[in-house]
């Protein structure tokens, strides 16, 4: 895989994609070093496993004995460590290329799509773990059953989340692939929706060119346009598709449904995570697992044990009768699905705290964002989380607030203002959910602490 390589350095090792790959290489006996701007639970975990992790980026972190340096799209060209690697002639490899090389050693299963790919990947990983397949797994979020987000198994399969954000998912060579949906996201990279669609078409056609299996969501109109062109695919969905779920039922955080394959009743699916979107994710997993020869009853037994992914409808705590939840949702479609799931299990008010992620995404989708909060009773919009972007003139969180219709909504500037406003109105039985791909989760944690002090 990595011939004549002993020591590997990750620039930005704390990133969720980078850390998973570093974890796998550590388990394979490579010497791993890395740097990141802050010390986190992820970097501490890697240190415990034997990695040398530096706080901050510096030339001194790059030594002559490094055989390979791994970078991601998030690393700018002027990064001091990247410049030093170039100066010393150290070989560079993009994160996506490294993932591709790892996948080449096994039969790859790649989960792609604008939304749901992390949860779907995590669900599939758990099913294969529970069914004694011992797969290699790389997920874009932490899960309890791995105590992290990656592992190198001795089985023949490699399950990976296929990241379309920078086009790197096209480097992968899976034998099976899933597309959960296609949206007009990551336009900062692609420039147009047509180029996003083209990338997914290439993802599907590449798998087909290797006589692989393509699994596509029948509820997503854009994905179904690709299905119409596909030589052979299996579709799944709610009330539609080759494999479909119907009669969805909600009992607290439990969701159940009846599952059919080519109109033949397979049995009942029960999940301990809420929402129609999670049933859809589970259906993709069922298709892949059945095609691998696993039994429906064993698949469902494993799925019932799935407890979610960190920052995906993660319950932060309950204080004074108020449920506090955090979710990674940072696109209008994700917000709609998550609020619908929360509304189904909440008797009181739903208070949504949203932190827009990136100026470019906010500028492109602020109207869609405004329309996505209809299921909330109160919406608080934090300042935009830049994620390294420079501010765009005349774009702010206020643009979203001003377009929100009947739902009560306010622009808040930071954690303290948000918490102070919530404390004044929240009642037992209400649910507060923080949403966004930035650091809004810290507000959820701080709110839980504040409410406990009040009690």
CATH fold-level name of the largest domain? UDP-N-acetylmuramoyl-L-alanine:D-glutamate ligase
Arithmetic mean of pLDDT = 91
**CATH architectural grouping of the largest domain:** 3-Layer(aba) Sandwich
What percent of residues adopt helix (DSSP H or I)? 25-40%
Number-wise, the strands total 21
Low-pLDDT residue intervals, each spanning 5 or more residues:
none
Helix-strand category: alpha/beta
Total domains: 3
**Termini distance?**
56 Å
Strand coverage percent: 25-35%
Overall geometry = globular
Question: Cα-atom Rg, whole angstroms?
Answer: 22 Å
- The CATH H-level homologous superfamily of the largest domain: Mur-like, catalytic domain
Q: Give the biggest beta sheet.
A: 10 strands, mixed
Order of strands across the main sheet = 8-7-9-6-10-11-12-13-14-15
The top-level CATH class of the largest domain is Alpha Beta
Count of separate DSSP helical elements: 15
